[in-house]
Amino acid sequence: MLGKSYLTKQASLLLEFARTTSDSDLSAKLISKAADLKSQADPLPDKDQGPKAPDVSPDEPAGS
After folding, report:
1. pLDDT tens, 1-10?
2. What span, in angstroms and rounded, lies between the C-alpha atoms of 24 and 30?
3. Which long-range contacts (CB under 8 A, 24 or more apart) does 31-39 make?
4. What's the rounded Cα separation, in Å, for the pair 15 and 35?
5. Torsion 19-21-24-27 (CA) sign
């Protein structure tokens, strides 16, 4: 599954490309795709909530 930051970055790049093109049809398609990516990213958590590595203990400070 793609993460929220990846989807948000891709949407931002599509919007940047849409602003730079003089082709109005292409610009509209890029904006539409950016909106699709944004709608996919919105329900995702802001941070990676994936499982931690098996050797990481939440009770021990780093470097112990």
Report:
1. 578 888 899 9
2. 10
3. 34/10, 35/11, 37/7, 37/8, 37/10, 37/11, 38/7, 38/8, 38/11
4. 9
5. negative
User: What does the buried/exposed string (b/e) look like for 21-50 if buried means 16 or more CB atoms within 10 Å of the residue's CB?
Assistant: eeeeeebeebbebbeebbebbeebeeeeee
| Encoded tokens for 38 | 């944004």
CA angle 3, 42, 21 (to 5 degrees): 85
Residues in contact with 40: Cβ distance below 8 Å, sequence separation at least 6, in sequence order: 2, 7
Q: How far is CA 40 from CA 1, 13, 30, in A?
A: 11, 16, 15
Q: Check residue 58 and report its DSSP letter.
A: T
Assessment of whether the complete model's pTM goes beyond 0.85:
no
Give the DSSP letter of residue 34: H
